[in-house]
Automatic annotation (TrEMBL), chain A:
<keyword id="KW-0256">Endoplasmic reticulum</keyword>
<keyword id="KW-0813">Transport</keyword>
<dbReference type="InterPro" id="IPR019529">
    <property type="entry name" value="Syntaxin-18_N"/>
</dbReference>
<dbReference type="InterPro" id="IPR006012">
    <property type="entry name" value="Syntaxin/epimorphin_CS"/>
</dbReference>
<protein>
    <recommendedName>
        <fullName>Syntaxin-18</fullName>
    </recommendedName>
</protein>
<dbReference type="GO" id="GO:0005484">
    <property type="term" value="F:SNAP receptor activity"/>
</dbReference>
<dbReference type="GO" id="GO:0006890">
    <property type="term" value="P:retrograde vesicle-mediated transport, Golgi to endoplasmic reticulum"/>
</dbReference>
<keyword id="KW-0472">Membrane</keyword>
<feature type="compositionally biased region" description="Polar residues">
    <location>
        <begin position="176"/>
        <end position="191"/>
    </location>
</feature>
Automatic annotation (TrEMBL), chain B:
<comment type="similarity">
    <text>Belongs to the STXBP/unc-18/SEC1 family.</text>
</comment>
<dbReference type="InterPro" id="IPR036045">
    <property type="entry name" value="Sec1-like_sf"/>
</dbReference>
<keyword id="KW-0963">Cytoplasm</keyword>
<protein>
    <recommendedName>
        <fullName>Sec1 family domain-containing protein 1</fullName>
    </recommendedName>
</protein>
<keyword id="KW-0472">Membrane</keyword>
<dbReference type="GO" id="GO:1902902">
    <property type="term" value="P:negative regulation of autophagosome assembly"/>
</dbReference>
<dbReference type="GO" id="GO:0032580">
    <property type="term" value="C:Golgi cisterna membrane"/>
</dbReference>
<keyword id="KW-0653">Protein transport</keyword>
<dbReference type="GO" id="GO:0051223">
    <property type="term" value="P:regulation of protein transport"/>
</dbReference>
């Protein structure tokens, strides 16, 4: 366990001071000493390197605080369902994304600048190493904060993709089926995360509303509860198409299954053959080894025979 | 403070706490270092914390302590941009705090004062490896005043970390000044009292730091009439003084931390190297001990000289270039942790197995690549895409793991190959088997003279080792005529006979003191010349190398520990002295107060130790549930270094 002897040190300083005074040694004690210290401090090259480095760090810190502050709202999926207070529209989200990106770019540019400048100025090897390490730390910090951003953005994108997927596979969107569908969903997966349910419930409403900026093919996004007959028809057509696709997929899968079974059979036969060959190769190997031996002995005999003659 | 005695009915809580707090001394030292590096504030990982940077200045002692525990990357993670030796040329770096980790010696203090005067850094955090004296502290204060830098000295700490931890449960006192506390230094005939005092003080200081870091006050037992006894007396005194000083005691509740040894105290067994001189000379068969014996290995780093390739160079071609490679054998190296105590053939097999499983995994990944190429075209099948992406992500995330595995396999292949070459060249398996037989007093199938005169088997040093082991373990010294014969054979083989001189003296002295130690009676069984390894045609072709199986036998040190820990009565250990620093009455009684077996023990060998003993202790304690052992020694030497010391001693 480490022992803090800083107080002891300060006490020693006092002791030394008084001792020096007593001995009449004027060594930086008293008022002049502290003034000296102040003076000595100011002309010390504080280095704009470190002050600028700290600036960049504080910027990144601000970005991180900003992201963390709005993170909850950003990720919140039901912001359209909840009250005004916690809501965040997509435009706001986009704005956050935009701002965050520009911020990150400026920060990384600042780091680059610092780096080139640090290299240009003539300094000792140690200072150079130290500075590049400091810049590495700052970059790492920026990366970590960017991860925050990219994580929440990934969640958002994933949710959009999921919605897109559901929107393609969902059947009749008229009110009757909507209710039955939602009740179906409720009965089918009561344990599923509640996220899905509200999403699919408001689904038909969302489709016209959200679909417009996302999919952009669904006519004038009215955001009403009812669906116009054209839309119903379009959904029906889509439906038919999807059924047809499903069937063909199903057939393909069947075929593939059959092929896979055949392949596995062939593989079995193949392995059998290989194993048979293994036995034969072993015996060949033995023979070859025996043959080599024989040849060796033969050579020996041949070599000896002239001597015997 | 009344000594805490554990009640007869040991409560489970105490036992659990002791087991949970089972000191991994490595962890404790690492935590202490990290706190020091974090400006002496406990270190908490914060993923979005602002970076803080600092430079680390250490002396050679500090370097030896830090290097087995923290890698350069870990230092970086703690915010250290530069790490420099104290006595090197250092340039002023503006606006950065500096953390010092040095021993409080004269030169170091002078250099630190110089740094203060030259205003090298922004602020100074001074950490002394062992406690600094008041006068030296005043020297620094003086320099700080002169340089008007008093406010820059932010913190001063005594770290009490004056020991080197190599494994979770193994520590060494020092590396830099090992000559000071070496076996030779302690045992040379011309040592003066003051020199002995200095050596003992150094050892005790480190042991004291060790117990402060461990956070426990041990019960000390030692043999009589040895250097170990001197250490025990001094250590007891130091601990006692510290405990009495209520203001500054280092062992009070708040410094101990949670879950400490409140019910159980550890046992410290101090033994002297002289009770067993055969083990340091022994040829060995386990991986870690072999690496230490045969290769250049210290502070967990092994240095290999690799020859580039095995092609036969045609006559007249330029000689093969030798690359020097060094590897760190660290706790994250899973293969090392698993196999460092295994017999060597097992290690060779395991490397093969690892290589095969790695290749299988590699093929998996490659197959995935080709699968990916065929699918992923169907835009309607988003689900299939996400399935493939799942496969991809798992493959990508397992890639770093695979690469790490490959690196470890390469590392161990190289190390094991190097070891194997030595084994084959010097016929170390033959020596090992023979020595085991000698030490366990079974009949020998080959005469000693034969092995010594055999020009193929081993270096002169190997032969000397073998003969010394024979001489040490013999119940009666060989007759003069025999001895002359052996001497002649040894000299013919090129050995230096000085170590023998010393061993003769030692033996005479040891005979007077007590009966010669026995090594137990077990055997090693050779498992046939053709191992499975050879059949699979691996690169570890161990043809002609016996696949020997180690049988568990207890070395003398392990036996002593067993007796003391389990409170067994044994003539060997019955008259060991007993010290309890926490007892009010400060004297030794040979009657131990504590009748219960100990759960934790620390074995410390004064005069040097080695990996064979360490491994033996580990094997012994593996069988016992809930018990832990720590092994320490004043220095760590392999047989080569030990023979050198013996030879120097024999010259006098």
């Amino acid at each position: 366990m480490a022992v803090d002897i800083t107080l002891l040190f300060r006490a020693s300083v006092k002791t030394v001071k008084t001792r020096n005074k007593a001995l009449g040694v004027a060594v930086g004690g008293g008022v002049e000493g502290s003034r000296d210290e102040l003076f000595r401090r100011s002309p010390r090259p504080k280095g704009d390197f470190s002050s600028r480095a700290r600036e960049v760090i504080s910027h990144i810190g601000k970005l991180r605080d900003f992201l963390l502050e709005h993170r909850k709202d950003y990720i919140n999926a039901y912001s359209h369902v909840m009250s005004e207070y916690g809501r965040m529209t997509d435009t706001e989200r986009d704005q956050i994304d935009q701002d965050a990106q520009t911020f990150m770019r400026t920060c990384s540019e600042a780091i680059q600048q610092l780096r080139t400048q640090a290299h240009k100025e003539i300094h000792s090897q140690q200072v150079k190493e130290h500075r590049s390490a400091v810049l590495d730390f700052i970059e790492d910090y920026l990366k970590r904060v960017c991860k925050l951003y990219s994580e929440q953005r990934a969640i958002r994108v994933k949710r959009v993709v999921d919605k897109k997927r559901l929107s393609k596979l969902e059947p009749e969107p008229n009110t009757k089926t909507r209710q039955s569908m939602s009740s179906e969903k409720v009965s089918q997966n009561p344990s599923k995360d509640s996220e899905e349910r509200p999403v699919t419930e408001e689904f038909p409403e969302k489709i016209p509303a959200e679909a417009q900026p996302e999919l952009g093919t669904w006519g004038d996004g009215k955001g009403e509860d009812e669906l116009s007959p054209e839309e119903i028809q379009m959904f029906e057509q889509e439906n038919q198409r999807l059924i047809g696709e499903m069937n063909s997929l199903f057939d393909e899968v069947r075929q593939i299954e059959g092929k896979v079974v055949e392949i596995s059979r062939l593989q079995e036969i193949f392995t059998e053959k290989v194993l048979q060959q293994e036995a034969e190769i072993d015996s060949i190997h033995q023979l070859v080894v025996g043959a080599t031996e024989n040849i060796k002995e033969g050579n020996e005999d041949i070599r000896e025979s002239p001597r015997l003659k | 403070m009344i000594g805490l005695r554990s009640p007869a009915g040991q409560c489970m809580v105490g036992a659990k706490m002791a087991a949970a707090a089972a000191a991994s001394i490595r962890e404790r030292q690492t935590v202490a270092l990290k706190r020091m590096l974090n400006f002496n504030v406990p270190h908490i990982k914060n993923s979005t914390g602002e970076p803080v940077w600092k430079v680390l200045i250490y002396d050679r002692f500090g370097q030896d302590i830090i290097s087995p525990l923290l890698s350069v990357k870990e230092l970086r993670d703690m915010g250290i941009t530069l790490h420099l030796l104290l006595h090197s040329d250092r340039d002023p770096i503006p606006d950065v705090p500096a953390v010092y980790f040095v021993m409080p010696t004269e030169e170091n203090i002078d250099r630190m004062c110089q740094d203060l005067r030259n205003q090298l850094y922004e602020s100074y955090y001074l950490n002394f490896i062992s406690a600094i004296s008041r006068s030296k502290l005043e020297d620094i204060a003086n320099a700080a005043l002169a340089a008007s830098a008093v406010t820059q000295v932010a913190k001063v700490f005594d770290q009490y970390l004056n020991f080197i931890t190599l494994e979770d449960d193994m520590f060494v006192l020092c590396n830099q000044n090992k000559e000071l506390v070496s076996y030779r230094a302690i045992n040379r005939p011309d040592i003066t009292d003051t020199e002995m005092e200095t050596v003992m003080d150094t050892i005790v200081d480190s042991l004291f730091c060790f117990f402060v870091t461990l956070g426990a006050v041990p019960i000390i037992r030692c043999s009589r009439g040895t250097a170990a006894e001197m250490v025990a007396v001094k250590l007891d005194k130091k601990l006692r003084e510290n405990l009495r000083d209520a203001r500054n005691s280092l062992f009070t509740g708040d410094t101990l931390g949670a879950g400490q040894f409140s019910f159980q105290r550890p046992l410290l067994v101090l033994v002297d190297r002289n009770i067993d001189l055969a083990t340091p000379l022994h040829h060995t068969w386990t991986y870690q001990a072999l690496v230490h014996d045969v290769l250049d290995f210290h502070l967990n780093r092994v240095n290999l000289e690799e020859s580039s390739g095995v092609e036969n160079s045609p006559a007249g071609a330029r000689p093969k270039r030798k690359n020097k490679k060094s590897y760190d054998l660290t706790p994250v190296d899973k293969f090392w942790q698993k196999h460092k105590g295994s017999p060597f053939p097992e290690v060779a097999e395991s490397v093969q197995q690892e290589l095969e499983s790695y290749r299988a995994q590699e093929d998996e990944v490659k197959r995935l690549k080709s699968i990916m190429g065929l699918e992923g075209e169907d835009e309607g099948a988003i689900s299939m895409l996400s399935d493939n992406t799942a496969k991809l992500t798992s493959a990508v995330s397992s890639l770093p793991e695979l690469l790490e595995k490959k690196r470890l396999i390469d590392l161990h292949t190289n190390v094991a190959t190097a070891v194997l070459e030595h084994i084959k060249a010097r016929k170390l398996d033959v020596y090992f088997e023979y020595e085991e037989k000698i030490m366990s007093k079974t009949t020998l199938d080959k005469s000693l003279l034969d092995i010594i005169s055999d020009p193929d088997a081993g270096t002169p040093e190997d032969k000397m080792r073998l003969f010394l082991i024979y001489y040490i373990s013999a119940q009666q010294a060989p007759s003069e005529a025999d001895l002359e014969q052996y001497k002649k054979a040894l000299t013919d083989a090129g050995c230096n006979l000085n170590p023998l001189q010393y061993i003769k003296q030692w033996k005479a002295f040891a005979k007077m003191a007590s009966a010669p130690t026995s090594y137990g009676n077990t055997t090693t069984k050779p498992m046939g010349l053709l191992s499975r390894v050879m059949n699979t045609g691996s690169q570890f072709v161990m043809e002609g190398v016996k696949n020997l199986v180690l049988k568990q036998q207890n070395l003398p040190v392990t036996r002593i520990l067993d007796n003391l820990m389990e409170m067994k009565s044994n003539p060997e250990t019955d008259d060991y002295r007993y010290f309890d620093p926490k007892m009010l009455r400060g004297n030794d009684s040979s009657v131990p107060r504590n009748k219960n077996p100990f759960q934790e023990a620390i074995v410390f060998v004064v005069g040097g130790g080695n990996y064979i003993e360490y491994q033996n202790l580990i094997d012994y304690i593996k069988g016992k549930q809930g018990k832990h052992i720590l092994y320490g020694c004043s220095e760590l030497f392999n047989a080569t270094q030990f023979i050198k010391q013996l030879s120097q001693l024999g010259q006098k």
